[in-house]
């Protein structure tokens, strides 16, 4: 892990500086990624998945990451979660250095990964059992999340009785049960049909506005990234690094049709496509 100097360097893409922020009395970022690289050794060669990635994510901010397949987007989430160690660089979560798996994050994957023998409610409450959350508090929180995600009436259903979209709602509830300050989402809607995906985008925007959880989303959908995020991080091909961070410029509350028709949405998606097109041309 790096020394604290890693986090005092100003990064031109993020425009932030740890020492400067402290001197101005501003809050520390919820997530600070400082000059990280990730290298893997295989039987045939060494692979650099990420290189010189720096990014600050403010408390309550929604940031989406897009880029070509294999550019290290999911690897970046694993660094924040403490499931991988950078080589070199470092990650701070709530001002605390990440040194291993973090119990205070929520993680939603592309597959819901529900337990077939447990009902929707009991799948959600599995999080409480793993983290020793008091039973009464966990049940009350689960009830709130079930209402918030529109799962009323399906809380006692088993996974095989739920659609793919409902299964992902259960997975989202499970990830939010312990009220994590940071939610990591790795292509959570990628396997769903287009209509269900749009519906869940609208639901996720509403849930984010209600909870103000800091969200870091990996997606291959440019429209999804721009619709949901405050900022979109565009990454280069492997070894992945930050090509540009785009300020979306949309209000937090976003009607779907109105947002997609807005000039801010068109400009942001156009810029992301331009950058990814340039990446493809370079390849």
From TrEMBL:
Organism name: Streptomyces venezuelae
Feature: compositional bias, Basic and acidic residues: 1-16
Residue span, ABC transporter domain: 31-262
SUPFAM superfamilies named in the record: P-loop containing nucleoside triphosphate hydrolases
Keywords: ATP-binding, Nucleotide-binding, Transport
GO molecular function terms listed in the Swiss-Prot or TrEMBL record: ATP binding; ATP hydrolysis activity
Protein origin, superkingdom: Bacteria
Gene3D superfamilies referenced in this protein's UniProt entry, alphabetically: P-loop containing nucleotide triphosphate hydrolases (3.40.50.300)
InterPro entries: AAA+_ATPase, ABC_transporter-like_ATP-bd, ABC_transporter-like_CS, ABC_transporter_ATP-bind, P-loop_NTPase
Name the UniProt record assigns to this protein: ABC transporter ATP-binding protein
Nucleotide-binding keyword on record: yes
Disordered: annotated span: 1-23
A Pfam family assignment: ABC_tran
């Amino acid at each position: 892990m790096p020394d604290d100097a890693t986090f005092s360097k100003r990064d031109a893409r993020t425009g932030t500086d740890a020492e400067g922020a402290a001197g101005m009395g501003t809050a520390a970022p919820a997530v600070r990624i400082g000059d990280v690289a990730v290298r893997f050794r295989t039987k045939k060669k060494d692979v650099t998945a990420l290189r010189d990635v720096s990014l600050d994510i403010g408390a309550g901010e929604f940031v989406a990451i897009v880029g070509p397949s294999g550019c290290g987007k999911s690897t970046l989430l694993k660094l924040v979660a403490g499931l991988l160690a950078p080589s070199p660089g470092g990650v701070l979560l709530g001002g605390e250095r990440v040194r291993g798996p973090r119990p205070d994050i929520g993680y939603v994957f592309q597959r819901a990964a529900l337990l077939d023998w447990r009902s929707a409610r009991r799948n959600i409450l599995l999080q409480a059992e793993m983290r020793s959350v008091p039973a009464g508090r966990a049940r009350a929180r689960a009830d709130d999340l079930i209402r918030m995600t529109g799962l009323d009436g399906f809380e006692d259903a088993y996974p095989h009785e739920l659609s793919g979209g409902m299964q992902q709602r259960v997975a989202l509830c499970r990830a939010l049960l312990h009220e994590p300050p940071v939610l990591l989402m790795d292509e959570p809607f990628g396997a769903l049909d287009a209509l269900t995906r749009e519906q869940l985008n609208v639901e996720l925007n509403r849930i984010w506005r209600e909870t103000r959880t800091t969200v870091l989303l990996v997606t291959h959908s440019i429209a999804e990234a721009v619709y949901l995020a405050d900022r979109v991080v565009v990454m280069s091909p492997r070894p992945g690094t930050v090509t540009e961070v785009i300020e979306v410029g949309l209000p937090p509350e976003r009607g779907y049709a109105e947002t997609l028709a807005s000039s801010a949405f068109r400009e942001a998606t156009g810029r992301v496509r331009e950058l990814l097109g340039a990446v493809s041309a370079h390849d």
